[in-house]
TrEMBL record:
Family per similarity comment: Belongs to the 5'-AMP-activated protein kinase gamma subunit family.
Membrane spanning stretches: none
Entry protein name: CBS domain-containing protein
Chain coiled-coil ranges: none
Protein transport among keywords: no
Domain of life: Eukaryota
Length: 295
């Protein structure tokens, strides 16, 4: 349905207990690829979310930011500051924080008011500074002059974090492993000249749920090209910049322009490309922006 995460409600405990995200689906598919060959489709369909969450906690020794070790959901109240919520997102490594309100002192009968994200907070910041950039001169500086983001060698300052890139014929298995290991939400797909073609994001994995495609494919046999075609219209050829899939800027663009791009719903990173060739030079994520703003 295109939603970024799904809050989990425990009717027995009468509270929200977690979030289900595309990362969960990725980890499930990797587990099935490794250990699930003997499971029937019926067993897959009846496996509960709570059973998966517990198995993930035991397997990975963590909850990928969604739940703390004491099993309390990472959330915020309507009265917390935007700065506090942004810090909470950065510290836990999660992408979304539920805003929960309860009129009871014991927290019973909670109401889910909103799902806060860095892009939503950034939108408020951009709206505030849009007509008063003079009060914050850094907003007018080109992004290449600011210690921000991840860049290919010899383009920006070395930061010890190589820029991950994929080719269209990269296997889906390799792409998912890279997404998890690098801890990023999306990776650029480039041609032989390192020119940007498309991007593969964690959320793209949900296309495999359509018609239960995941039950009859092997991740190491499907390419990124094929995987993306599952989620695109049949008349939309691979390689076209459809909708909001690829947000691009130039290294000479001011910081405010990059921030405004990142403030769009569903956008988590902007690719810095060379004018004309669209050769990828770097990437700036939402977390990069907030680490700079809060430093």
């Amino acid at each position: 349905q295109g939603i970024p995460v799904a809050p989990l409600w425990d009717s027995f405990r009468g509270q929200f207990v977690g979030l289900l995200s595309p990362l969960d689906f990725i980890l499930i598919l990797r587990e099935l690829e490794t250990h699930g060959s003997n499971l029937t489709e019926e067993q897959l369909e009846t496996h509960t979310i709570s059973a998966w969450k517990e198995a993930k906690r035991q397997t990975y020794g963590r909850n990928d930011g969604q739940l703390r070790s004491n099993q309390h959901l990472v959330h915020a109240t309507p009265y917390e500051s935007l700065r506090g919520i942004a810090m909470k997102i950065l510290e836990t490594g999660i992408s979304t924080v539920p805003i929960i309100y309860s009129s009871s002192t014991d927290g019973s009968f909670p109401q889910l008011l909103h799902l806060a994200s860095l892009s939503g907070i950034l939108k408020c910041i951009c709206r505030y500074f849009k007509n008063s950039t003079g009060s914050l001169p850094i907003l007018n500086q080109p992004v290449c002059s600011i210690p921000l983001g991840t860049w290919v060698p010899k383009i920006g300052e070395p930061n010890g974090h190589p820029l991950a890139m994929l080719r269209p014929n990269t296997s889906l298995s390799s792409a998912l492993n890279l997404l998890v290991q690098a801890g990023v939400s999306s990776i650029p797909i480039v041609d032989d000249n390192d020119s940007l073609i498309d991007t593969y994001s964690r959320s793209d994995i949900t296309a495999l749920a359509k018609d239960k495609v995941y039950t009859h494919i092997r991740l190491d046999e499907m390419t990124i090209h094929q995987a993306l075609q599952l989620g695109q219209d049949a008349n939309s050829p691979f390689g076209l910049f459809n909708g909001q899939r690829c947000q691009m800027c130039l290294r000479s663009d001011p910081l405010l322009k990059v921030m405004e791009r990142l403030a769009n719903p569903g956008v988590r990173r902007v690719f810095i490309v060379e004018a004309g060739s669209k050769r990828v030079e770097g990437v700036i994520s939402l977390s990069d922006i907030f680490k700079l703003l809060l430093s």
